[in-house]
Amino acid sequence: MTRKIVSLSLSDKAYKRLNQIQKQEDKSRSELIRGLLEAYDNRRSWDKVVTAGRPTKNRFNIKSEQDIIDILND
């Protein structure tokens, strides 16, 4: 896999937090930032699923996980 070098600017607070997390997780800064990008992509995908499902939620008046279970068991 080809890697690219990226330079970024962080506030002192963000830089310190990145270093704290790096030590806690025992990962490189690059690994942490790659993980953040992956989490961001996953969140965006989930947001799209929620948006796409909203009309169904409204049509069936789904308010909870139990409502979904009840619909599936009918």
Automatic annotation (TrEMBL):
InterPro entries linked to this entry: Arc_rbn_hlx_hlx (IPR013321), CopG (IPR002145)
GO BP: any one term: regulation of DNA-templated transcription
The protein's name: Ribbon-helix-helix protein CopG domain-containing protein
Lineage: Bacteria, Katanobacteria
Domain Ribbon-helix-helix protein CopG: 4-40
Organism (species): candidate division WWE3 bacterium CG23_combo_of_CG06-09_8_20_14_all_40_14
